[in-house]
Structure formats: structure tokens, C-alpha cells
Design brief:
heterotrimer, A mainly alpha, B mainly alpha, C mainly alpha, A: mainly alpha, B: mainly alpha, Four Helix Bundle (Hemerythrin (Met), subunit A), 2 domains, 6 helices, about 0% strand
Chain lengths: ~400, ~160, ~120
């Protein structure tokens, strides 16, 4: 029981004990444990994705009145759970067609780097309390994540440019134009969280969520969620692929496992985004009885992450795709201004609360004042959108009326 | 040699090697990619200097934003992606002289100083301290605001230039 | 501090290995029968026409530039946000002015119509 209550850390301690017992120096043993941890963390997203692809296909099928992968036909395990493995084997054994005139080094490097970037993000995700259940509790935690996801964009340009294909080049440029835009609101939403927490370390951010930030900073949470939906190329913002317009976007010319790696990285990114959202806004590993059994923290974390992924899937499966002008307008004319206003309001209100209560405001007072300010912001945004919509409708109706009048005159 | 020193040489070699790649690459796009690798090496050096925020900022601003900006700019210029280009233009000798002067200055500077590291470890939460001085009226409050104005001016200038055409 | 980055270093190796491993595994397993027809560039079934590296609109450049501006702004704002809990009210106000100036830049670009997709 003692061992189980903090399973993962205890396994680490046990391995270290074995190594030290076997005559390895204390320092070296710690390094080996760290390396094993890196392997576990590095392969964790892969494992999740294998399950996730199956779950996604199954849920999407059910929502659309289909069966999805199942055991009929070629046997794919109960409920088709082995389908992903079959797909993986298929991809691995497909011929890798090398198109004419591709720029070989960037062309082959792009799939490797895209997987690389999505794995690197996991270094600072806290899976549980303490220092044992996080890869590295860096002092720059969340900024590290933002930096890697920002630098990863260059890979799309590499893939698109080196493919020697018009669709790939155009697709890559459109994808990057979209993604860099959506990075800004994401960034500003994170800034609001950092401001309230006073730390960039992900472990500190989780630690300071006595009331989860989804409640105290709902506007930031919504902005972050929408922006990261766009970042991971989920359906309402799914212009990176745009099968009908760009035949697949920047990876048209990739086949076999190289295509598979882009696909894999996309899913890995969505898991990572769910994990980041959980850490930032849902209190990460925090939950009841974590003090007694730290392993429960990991369970809570995974449950919350699963919930976020499920929400992502529901939206992705339900909604149609936007046009690129709508997408860019939604970002630059709605999300970015809202995120800027949100940052100012949170900064001023939170500081005002601290200054206004000489004895220091309790977490609950502070939280409820922040929540009030956020709700006011949501209402104001809603009102502005409603007014704008009404104006647009009136203009449209006037235009239609004018058109109808013209037609009658002609007839 | 400690591990830190080995890593320093590795990252330094990455930066320098990539720098050579930038000037010798025949395709502009390749030069841009080499430049990004050089930025990555510099980020590694920042980590070794115990300045992780600047390492991340290096990835964030240079690889994320400036890299993309450079590649977009390459794409804007007609025919730049197509063929291989000559590596030098008519002003190569001027650039050579300037580079040599630069190198001489740096070598001289490196030779001059007694390079002693400041005593004591990097203070805890050094980044927070930086933030404090940024808005402290006795510190950098004015430059901080001016930086914002500068960014605005840069943006307005760029928009004007692009819209003219 | 550097101890913390050892993990990042290890993960860097693992992450690179993962990609290289997947590619080399498929390189071992896959059939290799290239033919000129097969390796033609995909262009909706037609013969590829012209070169792919067309000249792009200046619009993309504007987007990248606005992004760069906001990125640099964020780098300034992160230290400010970190120090937030110790700051007096007027210092927070300074940060807000910083943000609002950037907001004004956004409004300018918006009014100029540079954010419209053409």
C-alpha cells in the first residue's frame, strides 16, 4: 500500500536503490533514473495517441451514426481496439514515394522535427505533486512550452517549401499565417495566469490554484481553449489540411511513415494542449486525497486531461470548417483585442483587490472579485457581439430589399 | 573538462558551423534554415549561462517570429526561391572589411578583460527582479514604455511600406 | 539550475531518437520501387505546371510582422507579470499602458485594412 500510494516515484527510488546497491555512484544512479524518466515521458504521448486515435475514430463514428473500427471483417480486437496498431503497421510498410525535385534534407528532416517538437513540450508538464512526477520543474516552465510550440512552426514551412509542390507551399504559408496569429491570444491568456500566480513554473501554477483558474479567470480559459483549438488544427479552425481547397496542406507530398509522423504529431499536440490546459486552468493534478496518495494526482490529471480531449473531440466532430478570412478575422478582430482587454482588466482588478483590502484579501474574496470582473467582461463582449450582429443583419436586409426592388424594376 | 565545458563547445560549434552554413548556402531558404540552427545553438549557450528565460526567448522570438518573418520575406521576393544564387555580390569586399574589423574588435575585447564571473550564484527569481526594475521609476520605467512606442512605430512603418504598393 | 536541464537534455535525445527511429524503421520495412511516373509531383492528376515557389502576397509579411511585435511585447511582459505580486498599483498601470499602446497599434493596422484577407 505504501509502495502503491506513490507508485511512480517509488519505482524510481527502487531502481536507484538497485543501481547504488550494484556499485553505481549515487550521482550516476540519479542520472540513470532521470534518463529512464525521459524515456517514459518521451513515449507517454505516443502511448496516449495510440489509444486516442482509436477513441477519436470510435466517438466520431458513433456521433455520425456509424460503427467505426470494430471486430467485424479482419479481426481488430474487441471494439476494434487494435485498429491503430494495424494502421501503424500499414504505414510503416507503405512505400515511401520520393517526389521529383524535393529538397531532400529539409524534406526528410521536417517529419522528424515535428515529432521532436511535440515531444519536447512534455518536459515541464506536472503529472503529480512534488518533484518526482514532473520531468523538470523549470523556473521558466510555461514559457518553455510556448517557446517550443512557437519554434515548431518553422517545420511547416520546411515541409511545405521542400516538397516542390504548389499546394504544399501555399498550404504551409497559410497554415503558418494562421498559427502565428492564434499564438498571440494564447500567449496573452497565459500572461494573465502568470500574473495571478507570480511564477512561470508549471508546478507553482498548479500549486496556486486553490480555486481553479477556470473559475477565477474564465475569459483567459476560453481564449486559451479557442486559440489552442486553432493551434492543433481542430475542426472549426481546420484550414491547415483543408482537403477540398489545398488537398492536404503542407504534407501533400509525404507518404508512408513520413505522413504518419505528421499525423502522429498532430494528435500528440492535441494531447499536449489538453495537458497544458489542465495544468493552467483545471488545477492539474490537484484533487481530493492527493496528500495521502500522490499517485491519485496522476489519476486526477489524466481524468481532467481526458475530459478536455473529449470536449475538443465533440467540438471537432460537430462543427463545420471556417473560411480562411473568417478564421483570421476571428483571431485578429475578436480574440486578440479581447485577450488584451482581459489582461488589463485582470491586472488592474487583482491589484485593486490587494490594495483595497488592507489586511490582505482571502483567496475566496479575491477569486470572487476576479470572477465578477470576468463575468462583466463576458457580458460586455456578448452585448457588443449582439449589437454587431443586429447591425449586420439590418444591413443585409436593406441590401436584399434593394436587390429585390431593382429586380422588379427590371422585370 | 567538465560536462558544462563540453556542452559549451558543442553549442558553440553548432552556432559557428551553422553560421558558416548561412554564408555558404546557395539557396536562400537553406541559408534561412542554417540561421535558425545558429539561433538554436545560441539558445543552448544561454542555458549554460543559467539564463533559461533568455534561452526560451531566443527560441520564441528568433526561431519563432524572426525566422518566419525572414522566410516570408524571401518568399515575397520574386524568383528568389528558384535557382541557386551566387554567394557574393559586388560589395563583397566591403562586407569582408567590415567583418574583419568586427572580428578584430571582438578578439581585442576578449583579450583585454580579466574575465571573472560575478561572485555568488544567480539570485533566486532573477526574472521577477528584472520585472521590478522594468517598471521602477528609478529603473527602466521610461525605456520600458519607449520600447512599447518603438514597437508601435515599427508596426506602423511596416504597414505603410507594404500598403504603398 | 543546470541539473533541471539535464532532464531536458535527455528528453531532447529521446525526442530526436523517436523521430529517427520511426523513419528508419519504415525505411527497413517498406518496399522500394520508384518509377518516374510514381514520383511525379501531385497536382490533381495533371502534369505539374510551372514551379511551385510562386511569389507571395505582402499580406503574409504583415501578419508575420504583427506577430513579431506581439512576441517581443510578450517577452517584455513576462518579467512584469512575474513581478506583479510585489508591484504597487502605479507599476501595474505602467504595464497596462504598455499593453494599451500595443492595442492602439492593432487598431491602427485594423483601420488600415491590413488585417483583411485579400
Amino acid at each position: 500500500m505504501e509502495f502503491l500510494s506513490n507508485l511512480i516515484v517509488n519505482i524510481g527510488v527502487w531502481i536507484k536503490g538497485l543501481l547504488v546497491g550494484g556499485g553505481v555512484a549515487e550521482h550516476g544512479a540519479a542520472l540513470v533514473v532521470k534518463a529512464i524518466g525521459a524515456v517514459v515521458v518521451g513515449f507517454f504521448p505516443l502511448m496516449v495517441v495510440v489509444f486516442l486515435i482509436w477513441a477519436y475514430r470510435k466517438i466520431a463514428a458513433r456521433m455520425q451514426g456509424r460503427l467505426g473500427p470494430n471486430s467485424s471483417g479482419t479481426w481488430a480486437g474487441p471494439y476494434g481496439i487494435l485498429q491503430t496498431f494495424a494502421d501503424a503497421i500499414k504505414m510503416l510498410t507503405k512505400e515511401d514515394i520520393r517526389p521529383q525535385g524535393v529538397d531532400l534534407i529539409p524534406y526528410n528532416l521536417a517529419p522528424i522535427l515535428v515529432v521532436f517538437a511535440s515531444v519536447m513540450v512534455w518536459a515541464v508538464i506536472p503529472f503529480g505533486p512534488g518533484r518526482g512526477l514532473i520531468g523538470a520543474d523549470l523556473s521558466i516552465g510555461i514559457f518553455y512550452i510556448l517557446a517550443f510550440s512557437s519554434a515548431a512552426l518553422i517545420v511547416f514551412l520546411m515541409a511545405g517549401w521542400s516538397s516542390n509542390n504548389k499546394y504544399a507551399t501555399v498550404g504551409a504559408f497559410r497554415a503558418v499565417a494562421q498559427l502565428i496569429g492564434y499564438e498571440i491570444p494564447q500567449l496573452l491568456a497565459v500572461l494573465a495566469v502568470v500574473m495571478v500566480t507570480g511564477s512561470l513554473s508549471t508546478q507553482d501554477i498548479v500549486g496556486s490554484q486553490d480555486v481553479i483558474f477556470l473559475v477565477t479567470l474564465p475569459v483567459s480559459a476560453i481564449i486559451f481553449f479557442l486559440a489552442s483549438m486553432a493551434e492543433i488544427n481542430a475542426r472549426p479552425f481546420e484550414l491547415l489540411e483543408a482537403e477540398s481547397e489545398l488537398v492536404c496542406g503542407y504534407f501533400v507530398e509525404y507518404s508512408g511513415m513520413k505522413f504518419g509522423m505528421f499525423y502522429l504529431a498532430e494528435f500528440m499536440n492535441s494531447v499536449a494542449v489538453a495537458a497544458i490546459f489542465t495544468t493552467l486552468f483545471l488545477g492539474g493534478w490537484r484533487g481530493p486525497w492527493v496528500d495521502q496518495a500522490p499517485i491519485l494526482g496522476t489519476v486526477w490529471f489524466l481524468v481532467k486531461m481526458g475530459a478536455v480531449i473529449f470536449l475538443w473531440m465533440l467540438i471537432q466532430i460537430t462543427l463545420p470548417r471556417l473560411r480562411i478570412d473568417q478564421m483570421l478575422a476571428f483571431n485578429w478582430k475578436f480574440l486578440v483585442p479581447l485577450a488584451l482587454v482581459n489582461l488589463c482588466v485582470v491586472g488592474l482588478v487583482n491589484k485593486g483587490t490587494t490594495e483595497g483590502f488592507p489586511g490582505g484579501a482571502s483567496a475566496w474574496t479575491r477569486g470572487s472579485i476576479l470572477l465578477g470582473a470576468n463575468l462583466a467582461m463576458i457580458l460586455a463582449t456578448w452585448g457588443m457581439l449582439a449589437v454587431g450582429e443586429r447591425q449586420a443583419r439590418r444591413r443585409r436586409e436593406a441590401w436584399q430589399a434593394a436587390q429585390a426592388g431593382e429586380l422588379e424594376v427590371v422585370v | 573538462m567538465t560536462l558544462q565545458q563540453i556542452l559549451f563547445f558543442i553549442f558553440g560549434a553548432i552556432s559557428l558551423g551553422a553560421g558558416v552554413g548561412v554564408v555558404t548556402a546557395r539557396k536562400l531558404f537553406h541559408a534561412a534554415l542554417w540561421l535558425l540552427l545558429a539561433f538554436f545553438g545560441v539558445a543552448g549557450l544561454y542555458v549554460l549561462l543559467e539564463a533559461p528565460f533568455f534561452a526560451a526567448a531566443q527560441l520564441f522570438v528568433y526561431m519563432g517570429a524572426i525566422g518566419i518573418l525572414i522566410i516570408f520575406a524571401i518568399m515575397l521576393t520574386r524568383g528568389m526561391m528558384r535557382q541557386r544564387h551566387p554567394r557574393a555580390n559586388r560589395q563583397w569586399w566591403l562586407a569582408g572589411i567590415l567583418a574583419a574589423l568586427f572580428l578584430a574588435t571582438f578578439v581585442r575585447l576578449a583579450w583585454q578583460g580579466p574575465w571573472t564571473a560575478p561572485a555568488g550564484p544567480v539570485p533566486e527569481n532573477s526574472l521577477g527582479l528584472l520585472g521590478l526594475t522594468l517598471v521602477d521609476p528609478g529603473g527602466f520605467a521610461l525605456p520600458f514604455e519607449v520600447a512599447s512606442v518603438l514597437l508601435v512605430v515599427a508596426l506602423i512603418g511596416a504597414v505603410t511600406i507594404v500598403r504603398e504598393r | 539550475m543546470l541539473e533541471q536541464f539535464t532532464f531536458v537534455g535527455f528528453l531532447l535525445v529521446v525526442a530526436l531518437f523517436l523521430g529517427i527511429f520511426l523513419i528508419s524503421l519504415s525505411w527497413l520495412l517498406r518496399p522500394k520501387r520508384p518509377s518516374p511516373r510514381k514520383s511525379e509531383i501531385y497536382e490533381c492528376g495533371l502534369r505539374p505546371h510551372g514551379e511551385p515557389w510562386v511569389r507571395f502576397k505582402a499580406q503574409y509579411y504583415i501578419f508575420a510582422l504583427v506577430f513579431l511585435i506581439f512576441d517581443v511585447e510578450a517577452v517584455f511582459l513576462f518579467p512584469w507579470a512575474l513581478a506583479y505580486n510585489w508591484l504597487p498599483f502605479y507599476a501595474v498601470l505602467e504595464g497596462v499602458i504598455f499593453i494599451l499602446l500595443l492595442g492602439a497599434a492593432l487598431v491602427y493596422v485594423w483601420r488600415k485594412g491590413a488585417l483583411e484577407w485579400m
